């Protein structure tokens, strides 16, 4: 399934802080996209959203030697976007994920729902 070392480290960072509904969307077969992969997940509160973002950054740096080019949304903790150039990570509160519906917007990509331990 997901063999990419960078994506695996991002997923681990999300799971370490109990991020939910993790989805990876492979966009490589779609022309003119801004990245190759999207990783989308959610946290239950603004504090958890920020904690997930911090964990992703730390685990990805340690395990895959990657750092985000840019991170937006940490101050409000509603929607954090982390740009790893070829991978973009979106961490939402559930209601904001439903409102922006990136899952549906990019459904033409190959979708992987990650089963995490509860």
Question: What can you tell me about this protein's structure?
Answer:
The structure is a single chain. This protein is α+β, with helices and mostly antiparallel strands. The chain is built from four helices and six strands. It has helices spanning 5-16, 46-64, 94-100, 102-105, and strands at 20-26, 37-42, 70-72, 79-83, 87-92, 110-114. A six-stranded mixed beta sheet has the order 3-4-5-2-1-6. α1 runs antiparallel to α2. The longest helix is centred in the middle third of the chain and has 19 residues, at 46-64. It is globular, with a radius of gyration of 13 Å. The two termini are 21 Å apart. The model has no long low-confidence stretch (mean pLDDT 94).
Helices and strands in order:
Blueprint: H1 5-16, E1 20-26, E2 37-42, H2 46-64, E3 70-72, E4 79-83, E5 87-92, H3 94-100, H4 102-105, E6 110-114
Parallel strand pairs: 2-5
Antiparallel strand pairs: 1-2, 1-6, 3-4, 4-5
Q: Which properties best describe this structure?
A:
6 strands, single chain, 118 residues, alpha+beta, 27% strand
**Largest sheet composition:** 6 strands, mixed
Mean pLDDT: 94
With helices defined by DSSP (H or I, 4 residues minimum), what is the helix count? 4
What is the element string, with H for helices and E for strands?
HEEHEEEHHE
């Amino acid at each position: 399934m997901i063999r990419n070392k960078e994506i695996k480290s991002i997923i681990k960072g999300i799971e370490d802080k109990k991020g939910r509904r993790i989805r990876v969307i492979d966009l490589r077969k779609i022309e003119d996209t801004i990245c190759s992969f999207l990783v989308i997940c959610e946290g239950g509160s603004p504090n958890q959203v920020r904690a997930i973002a911090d964990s992703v950054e730390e685990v990805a740096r340690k395990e895959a030697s990657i750092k985000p080019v840019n991170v937006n949304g940490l101050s409000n903790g509603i929607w954090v976007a982390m740009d790893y150039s070829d991978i973009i990570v979106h961490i939402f509160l559930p209601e904001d994920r439903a409102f922006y519906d990136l899952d549906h917007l990019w459904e033409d990509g190959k979708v992987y729902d990650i089963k995490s331990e509860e």
